[in-house]
Amino acid sequence: MIHLDFLGLKYDTPQELIETLDYMIDQSAHSYGIKLKESGYDKRFRELIRILSSREKVVVLVDEYDKPIINHIENPEIAKQNRNILRTFYEAIKGADEYIRFVFITGEGIGDRRMMWIK
After folding, report:
1. CA distance 97 to 94
2. What are phi and psi of 101, to 5 degrees?
């Protein structure tokens, strides 16, 4: 199982969000004794999923998936950059479908501000 929780982590800038994603991926890999070889948070996340699936299909739990966007809703430029980073990150899940048992994602939601997710 891979459990990623965005609550209380640092993502005040897009670079901090990337560092946070790298940190969460590293922590998950370390907990299973896995050393990742890929570079880039999206490739490393997919690599982690693939390696873990050699034991059994992977469960991915993501808490507060939209926190890096919601926290910057009043600063549209950072919210947009964070959205794009997260889009790439979550596409890694979709691209690893064959290795995944199921994915459970929680978030605050942005209500009538849904357009933040539209391309």
Report:
1. 5
2. -80, -55
| Annotated domain spans of the chain | 2-117
CA distances in angstroms from 28 to 24, 36, 104, listed in the order given: 6, 11, 16
Tell me which amino acid residue 11 is. Y
Write the burial class of residue 11 (CB in 10 Å: 0-12 exposed, 13-18 middle, 19+ buried).
Answer: buried
Q: CB under 8 Å to 101, separation ≥6 — which residues?
A: 56, 57, 58, 59
Per residue in 13-37, pLDDT (tens digit) is: 999 999 999 999 999 999 999 999 9
What one-character DSSP code corresponds to residue 75? Answer: S
Per-residue tokens: 30: 């370390």
Taking the C-alpha atoms of residue 98 and residue 95, their distance in angstroms, rounded to an integer, is 8
* 62-107 pLDDT, tens digit each: 999 999 999 998 999 999 999 999 999 999 999 999 999 999 999 8
Specify which residues 3 forms β-bridges with.
61
